[in-house]
Description:
The structure holds 2 protein chains of 2 kinds. Chain A is mainly alpha-helical. Chain A has one domain. Chain A is built from 7 helices and 3 strands, in the order E-H-E-E-H-H-H-H-H-H. In chain A, strands 2-3 form a two-stranded antiparallel ribbon. Classes of the chains: A mainly alpha, B mainly alpha.
Amino acid sequence: MTNPTSSVATTGSPGSRALGLATLLGLVGLLVLAFVLTEPDVRIHPSTGQEIGQFDAVRLLYLHVPMAVITYVAYSLAAFASAGYLIKRTPWWDVTAHAAAEVGTVFCFLVLVTGSIWGRPVWNTWWEWGDVRLMTTLILFLMFVGYLALRRTAADPRVQARRAAVVALVAIVDLPLVNRSVEWWENRTLHQKSTLGELKIEDLTLFTLMIGFLVFLMVFAWLLLHRFRVGWLTLAAGEHQVAAAIKERRAEADGSEVASAVGETS
Amino acid sequence: MTHLGYLLGGWGVAAVLLTVYAVSVVRRGRALSVSVPEDQRRWLTSQNPTDG
Lengths: 266, 52
C-alpha cells in the first residue's frame, strides 16, 4: 500500500499557535505574580503574638485551586458531550467527550498530587482517608480512569462510544458531591469552606488567583483543541484504511476475473 | 522563602506532567497525519518535511 501523503501535518493551526503563545506568556505572568509580587500568608496570633499562617506554601493556591476548577469544567464538558452523543449519535460529540475526559483526567491527577503536596506543610499530612473531599475527588478520578480504559477496549467503535458515554454520565454524579462536600460534611474534611464565596481573600491574592483561573483555562483549551484533532485524525485514518482495503480487494477481484476470463479463452 | 521544597514539588510536577502530555498529544497528531490523505486533514497545517 502506498503512503497517502507527501508531507507531514501537525495538529497546530494559526489560531491554536496564537493561543499557545498567549498561554505561555500568561504562565510567565502567573509565575511572576505567584512567586514575586504576592506576599506569603503570615498573620499574628491575637493572644500569643506568634506568627501563624501558611507562609510561602500559600503560593500553591494559585496552582491547585484553578486546576481543580478546570477539572470540573473538563468533566462537565465530557458529560455534556456524552449526552450529546447519546442523542445525536455523531462522531463529533464522541470525540469531544473523549478529549475532554482525557485532558480532565490529567488535571484531576495533578489536583490530587498538588493537594497532597500542599497538605503536608499546612495540615501535617500527605493524605487523609477520612476526608470527604479527598475521597470523592479520588473516586471521580478513578471513574474517569475507568472511562479511558473502556475507550481502549476492542469493541465495535459505536458500542464503545455508547458505553463510554453512559460511564461519563454516571461518573459526573460525583462532581456535585466533590464541590459541596465541604458544606455538607464540614466536620469530615480538612478543607475549608469556599474562600471565594465568602470573599476571605482580596487584593493581589484574589487577582493572582483569577489570573490563575484564566491561564489554566487557556492551557486546558489548547490541550483540548489538539487532543480533539488527534481524535478526529484517528477516525479519518481508520476510515481511510477501510476504504483502501476495500479498493485493494476490489482490484484483486477484478484481476482474478480477468485472469479467469483469459484462461477460458486461451 | 519557606516551604521551598513543597513549592518546587507542586509547581514542578505540574509543569513536567503538562509538558509531557502536551508533547505526547502533538506527537500522536504528527504520527497519525501520515496515514491520512491531505484532502482529509481537516484543521491541520501541512508542512513539507524538507522545509524543516
